[in-house]
Amino acid sequence: MFEDLVKATRSYRNFDPSVRLDDETMQGLIELCRYTPSTANKQSIKFAYANSKEACDKIFPLIGWAGYLQDKPPYNGNVPAAYILVCYDTEIAPELEIDAGICAQTIVLGAMDMGIGACMLGNFKKPEITDIFALPEHIKPRLLIALGRPAETVEIVDIKDGDVKYFRDGREKNIVPKRTLNEIMLPKAD
User: Fold this and answer.
1) Which residues are CB-neighbours of 168 under 8 A, at least 6 positions away?
2) Which helix (H) or strand (E) covers residue 176, if one does?
3) pLDDT tens across 38-61, in order?
4) Are strands 173-178 and 153-158 parallel, antiparallel or unpaired?
5) According to a count of CB atoms within 10 Å of the terminal CB, is the N or C end of the chain lower?
6) How far is Cα 8 from Cα 116, in angstroms, rounded to an integer?
7) pTM score, two decimals?
């Protein structure tokens, strides 16, 4: 059921380091974005990926993980197996945030459907990432999606006292407060 897929698609920050993702899997996730809606059908979002241990080892230190947590994941070497870089092609269109978001959500839903966890990351060193992927000047990095087989549990709970900060229950479980339906729903139109 689609609702179960959405609920399972969380920001995973600990991955099983023994599981690698092959080129076919990475390209398949990116191909899903060919079918997504796009502003004025410009299709200006471009993608690069890294799935070798060597490339992932270069990327990992350039990421800012889990802003709310004091003890930063991933723990015990549970680093991502791969990354997909979501970029704007400014020769096609200006930076279209909505298109990047649609593509990123499509990738993480597609990944979870295959049992692959993901974490969308906006906090990374863009100049260094640009160099690693040898991006031309008109390609601008926007999001980095970390991928791998999840090595943690994520539990959704209702927000209490307005506190939206996620937290760890030990190192095994990530607790994520979410607003209730009543909090996010506005009155219907008459």
Assistant:
1) 69, 71, 73, 174, 175
2) strand 173-178
3) 999 999 999 999 999 999 999 999
4) parallel
5) C
6) 10
7) 0.92
The C-alpha atoms of residue 34 and residue 15 are separated, in whole angstroms, by 27
The tokens 């974490």 sit on which residue? 119
107: part of which helix (H) or strand (E)? helix 97-113
Handedness of CA 51, 53, 54, 57 (dihedral sign): positive
Q: Is 162 left (phi over 0), alpha (psi -120 to 50) or beta?
A: left
Name the percent of the chain in helix, strand, coil, to the closest 5: 30, 25, 40
Q: What is the mean pLDDT of the chain?
A: 93
Of 82, 118, 81, 123, nearest in space to 103 by CA: 118
Sequence-ordered list of residues with C-beta below 8 angstroms from that of 101, at least 6 positions apart, any chain: none
